[in-house]
């Protein structure tokens, strides 16, 4: 979570102040949403790969 916060902050906030501008808020929101999208995609693909590996393993060693 800290790495995400740091990355989005560095990307979106060019000069710190007491309040975020609307464009800074939008940029941070988009950054976080893209991070979540990528993580969901990666987890989905990992789950599919694990399911395929399990199915393949079961084909080789059927339960009697």
Reconstruct the topology from this structure.
Blueprint: H1 2-12, H2 22-60
Mean pLDDT comes to 86
Helix content: over 70%
SSE order, one letter for each helix or strand: HH
- The amount of beta strand, in percent, is under 5%
- In the predicted model, the low-confidence regions spanning at least 5 consecutive residues are none
Major sheet characteristics: none
* Rg (CA only): 20 Å
The end-to-end span amounts to 46 Å
- Structural class, judged by helices and strands? mainly alpha
Count of helix runs: 2
- From the spread of the alpha carbons, the general shape counts as rod-shaped
Q: Would you report the number of β strands?
A: 0
How would you explain this protein's 3D organization?
The chain is an all-alpha fold and 64 residues long. The chain contains 2 helices and no strands. Helix 1 crosses helix 2. It is rod-shaped.
In short:
The chain has 64 residues and is mainly alpha-helical. The chain has helices spanning 2-12, 22-60.
Which key terms come to mind for this protein?
single chain; 2 helices; 0% strand
């Amino acid at each position: 979570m800290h790495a995400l916060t740091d990355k989005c902050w560095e990307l979106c906030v060019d000069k710190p102040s007491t309040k975020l501008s609307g464009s800074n808020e939008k940029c941070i929101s988009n950054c976080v949403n893209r991070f979540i999208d990528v993580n969901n995609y990666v987890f989905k693909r990992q789950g599919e790969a694990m399911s395929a590996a399990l199915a393949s393993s079961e084909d080789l060693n059927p339960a009697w």
